[in-house]
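Run Thiamine diphosphokinase through structure prediction, thanks.
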Amino acid sequence: MKGLIISSGEIKDYKLLSKVVEENDYIVCADGGVNHLLKIDKLPNIVLGDLDSIGEKELKILKNENVEIRKFPKMKDETDTELCINYLLQEGYKDIRLMGVTGTRFDHTLANIYLLKRIYDLGARGKIIDANNRIFYTSDSISLKKKEGFFISIIPISKEGIIISLEGFLYPLKKDYIEFSSTRGISNKIVEECGDIKIHRGEALVIESKD
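Sure, done. The structure for Thiamine diphosphokinase is below.
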Protein backbone atom coordinates (compact mmCIF):
# COMPACT_ATOMS: atom_id res chain seq x y z
CA MET A 1 0.00 0.00 0.00
CA LYS A 2 1.08 3.55 -0.72
CA GLY A 3 0.86 6.34 1.82
CA LEU A 4 1.17 10.05 1.03
CA ILE A 5 2.32 12.72 3.49
CA ILE A 6 1.48 16.33 2.67
CA SER A 7 3.36 18.93 4.69
CA SER A 8 3.09 22.71 4.81
CA GLY A 9 6.10 23.52 2.63
CA GLU A 10 5.96 24.71 -0.96
CA ILE A 11 3.61 23.15 -3.52
CA LYS A 12 3.60 24.96 -6.87
CA ASP A 13 1.78 22.44 -9.03
CA TYR A 14 -1.69 21.53 -7.77
CA LYS A 15 -2.40 19.37 -10.81
CA LEU A 16 0.58 17.27 -9.79
CA LEU A 17 -0.73 17.14 -6.23
CA SER A 18 -4.12 15.92 -7.49
CA LYS A 19 -2.43 13.23 -9.58
CA VAL A 20 -0.27 12.01 -6.69
CA VAL A 21 -3.25 11.99 -4.31
CA GLU A 22 -5.15 9.70 -6.69
CA GLU A 23 -2.17 7.33 -6.87
CA ASN A 24 -2.03 6.75 -3.11
CA ASP A 25 -4.15 4.67 -0.76
CA TYR A 26 -3.91 6.76 2.40
CA ILE A 27 -3.36 10.50 2.93
CA VAL A 28 -1.75 11.97 6.04
CA CYS A 29 -1.42 15.72 6.46
CA ALA A 30 1.28 17.21 8.63
CA ASP A 31 -0.45 20.16 10.25
CA GLY A 32 -0.75 22.99 7.65
CA GLY A 33 -0.30 20.53 4.80
CA VAL A 34 -4.07 20.15 4.96
CA ASN A 35 -4.37 23.67 3.51
CA HIS A 36 -2.82 22.38 0.28
CA LEU A 37 -5.19 19.43 0.16
CA LEU A 38 -8.30 21.52 0.74
CA LYS A 39 -7.33 23.71 -2.22
CA ILE A 40 -7.99 20.73 -4.51
CA ASP A 41 -11.20 19.84 -2.64
CA LYS A 42 -9.78 16.68 -1.10
CA LEU A 43 -9.76 15.48 2.49
CA PRO A 44 -7.04 13.58 4.35
CA ASN A 45 -7.55 10.36 6.26
CA ILE A 46 -5.83 11.90 9.28
CA VAL A 47 -4.08 15.12 10.36
CA LEU A 48 -1.12 15.03 12.74
CA GLY A 49 0.81 17.89 14.34
CA ASP A 50 0.68 20.78 16.77
CA LEU A 51 -1.99 22.51 14.62
CA ASP A 52 -0.24 25.88 14.65
CA SER A 53 -0.56 26.23 10.85
CA ILE A 54 -4.26 25.42 10.40
CA GLY A 55 -6.86 28.21 10.45
CA GLU A 56 -10.22 28.08 12.18
CA LYS A 57 -12.02 27.76 8.83
CA GLU A 58 -9.96 24.72 7.85
CA LEU A 59 -10.36 23.12 11.28
CA LYS A 60 -14.12 23.55 11.04
CA ILE A 61 -14.17 21.78 7.66
CA LEU A 62 -12.14 18.88 9.05
CA LYS A 63 -14.39 18.52 12.09
CA ASN A 64 -17.58 18.74 10.01
CA GLU A 65 -16.24 15.96 7.78
CA ASN A 66 -15.20 13.85 10.80
CA VAL A 67 -11.54 13.77 9.76
CA GLU A 68 -9.38 12.29 12.51
CA ILE A 69 -7.07 14.88 14.10
CA ARG A 70 -4.26 14.04 16.49
CA LYS A 71 -2.84 17.10 18.22
CA PHE A 72 0.71 17.10 19.59
CA PRO A 73 2.41 19.68 21.81
CA LYS A 74 4.48 22.42 20.17
CA MET A 75 7.43 21.49 22.35
CA LYS A 76 8.42 18.09 20.95
CA ASP A 77 11.45 16.24 19.60
CA GLU A 78 10.06 15.52 16.11
CA THR A 79 8.78 17.73 13.32
CA ASP A 80 5.19 17.20 12.21
CA THR A 81 6.51 15.52 9.06
CA GLU A 82 8.49 12.99 11.09
CA LEU A 83 5.40 12.28 13.20
CA CYS A 84 3.53 11.43 9.99
CA ILE A 85 6.33 9.14 8.83
CA ASN A 86 6.32 7.32 12.16
CA TYR A 87 2.55 6.92 11.93
CA LEU A 88 2.62 5.39 8.44
CA LEU A 89 5.48 3.06 9.37
CA GLN A 90 3.56 1.89 12.46
CA GLU A 91 0.54 1.26 10.23
CA GLY A 92 2.66 -0.98 7.99
CA TYR A 93 3.09 1.22 4.92
CA LYS A 94 6.16 0.30 2.86
CA ASP A 95 5.86 2.91 0.10
CA ILE A 96 5.75 6.47 1.39
CA ARG A 97 5.53 9.60 -0.79
CA LEU A 98 6.06 13.11 0.55
CA MET A 99 4.91 16.44 -0.86
CA GLY A 100 5.13 19.93 0.59
CA VAL A 101 8.42 19.03 2.29
CA THR A 102 10.67 21.36 0.26
CA GLY A 103 10.67 25.14 0.03
CA THR A 104 12.15 28.30 1.47
CA ARG A 105 13.01 26.78 4.88
CA PHE A 106 16.21 25.02 3.87
CA ASP A 107 16.65 23.55 7.34
CA HIS A 108 13.32 21.74 6.98
CA THR A 109 14.07 20.78 3.37
CA LEU A 110 17.41 19.21 4.29
CA ALA A 111 16.00 17.48 7.36
CA ASN A 112 13.15 16.05 5.28
CA ILE A 113 15.59 14.73 2.69
CA TYR A 114 17.49 12.94 5.43
CA LEU A 115 14.22 11.46 6.69
CA LEU A 116 14.31 9.34 3.52
CA LYS A 117 17.16 7.41 5.15
CA ARG A 118 15.08 6.89 8.30
CA ILE A 119 12.24 5.49 6.19
CA TYR A 120 14.68 3.15 4.42
CA ASP A 121 16.37 2.00 7.63
CA LEU A 122 12.97 1.09 9.06
CA GLY A 123 12.15 -1.18 6.13
CA ALA A 124 10.21 1.05 3.73
CA ARG A 125 10.88 3.22 0.69
CA GLY A 126 10.38 6.96 0.55
CA LYS A 127 10.17 9.49 -2.26
CA ILE A 128 9.98 13.28 -2.10
CA ILE A 129 8.00 14.85 -4.95
CA ASP A 130 7.81 18.49 -5.97
CA ALA A 131 7.23 20.36 -9.22
CA ASN A 132 10.83 19.93 -10.39
CA ASN A 133 12.29 17.03 -8.44
CA ARG A 134 11.88 13.45 -7.31
CA ILE A 135 14.28 12.51 -4.49
CA PHE A 136 15.14 8.99 -3.34
CA TYR A 137 17.59 7.43 -0.87
CA THR A 138 19.32 4.14 -1.63
CA SER A 139 22.18 1.94 -0.52
CA ASP A 140 21.38 -0.88 -2.95
CA SER A 141 19.61 -0.86 -6.33
CA ILE A 142 17.04 1.32 -8.03
CA SER A 143 15.67 1.39 -11.58
CA LEU A 144 14.20 4.56 -13.09
CA LYS A 145 12.19 5.00 -16.27
CA LYS A 146 13.40 7.52 -18.81
CA LYS A 147 11.57 10.85 -18.58
CA GLU A 148 12.06 13.53 -21.19
CA GLY A 149 13.63 16.69 -19.82
CA PHE A 150 14.84 15.13 -16.58
CA PHE A 151 18.40 14.88 -15.33
CA ILE A 152 19.56 12.22 -12.89
CA SER A 153 21.97 13.21 -10.14
CA ILE A 154 23.55 10.83 -7.64
CA ILE A 155 25.01 12.38 -4.50
CA PRO A 156 27.03 10.30 -2.02
CA ILE A 157 25.98 10.96 1.58
CA SER A 158 28.21 8.41 3.31
CA LYS A 159 31.60 9.62 4.50
CA GLU A 160 33.42 6.85 2.64
CA GLY A 161 31.76 7.79 -0.66
CA ILE A 162 30.12 5.21 -2.92
CA ILE A 163 31.05 2.47 -5.36
CA ILE A 164 28.44 2.57 -8.09
CA SER A 165 27.42 1.02 -11.40
CA LEU A 166 25.12 2.73 -13.91
CA GLU A 167 23.52 1.10 -16.96
CA GLY A 168 21.32 2.83 -19.53
CA PHE A 169 22.85 6.24 -18.81
CA LEU A 170 24.62 8.79 -21.00
CA TYR A 171 27.60 8.42 -18.66
CA PRO A 172 27.66 4.75 -17.61
CA LEU A 173 29.77 3.51 -14.73
CA LYS A 174 31.02 0.10 -13.68
CA LYS A 175 31.96 -0.18 -10.03
CA ASP A 176 33.37 3.35 -10.09
CA TYR A 177 34.20 5.23 -6.94
CA ILE A 178 32.63 8.63 -6.23
CA GLU A 179 33.93 10.31 -3.12
CA PHE A 180 31.83 12.20 -0.59
CA SER A 181 31.51 15.90 -1.58
CA SER A 182 32.26 15.15 -5.26
CA THR A 183 29.99 16.54 -7.98
CA ARG A 184 30.83 13.72 -10.41
CA GLY A 185 27.33 12.26 -10.18
CA ILE A 186 25.48 15.45 -11.11
CA SER A 187 23.36 15.89 -14.28
CA ASN A 188 23.50 12.47 -15.90
CA LYS A 189 20.74 11.34 -18.27
CA ILE A 190 18.92 8.08 -18.97
CA VAL A 191 19.34 7.18 -22.65
CA GLU A 192 17.66 3.75 -22.65
CA GLU A 193 14.09 2.87 -21.68
CA CYS A 194 15.27 2.54 -18.07
CA GLY A 195 18.33 3.50 -16.10
CA ASP A 196 19.66 1.00 -13.57
CA ILE A 197 21.58 2.20 -10.51
CA LYS A 198 23.51 -0.19 -8.30
CA ILE A 199 25.24 1.00 -5.14
CA HIS A 200 27.86 -1.61 -4.25
CA ARG A 201 29.08 0.28 -1.19
CA GLY A 202 27.89 3.37 0.62
CA GLU A 203 24.72 5.46 0.60
CA ALA A 204 23.42 8.02 -1.87
CA LEU A 205 20.62 10.35 -2.78
CA VAL A 206 19.20 9.86 -6.25
CA ILE A 207 17.50 12.95 -7.65
CA GLU A 208 15.40 13.27 -10.82
CA SER A 209 15.38 16.98 -11.71
CA LYS A 210 14.10 19.23 -14.45
CA ASP A 211 14.63 22.96 -15.01
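The chain has a mean pLDDT of 97.
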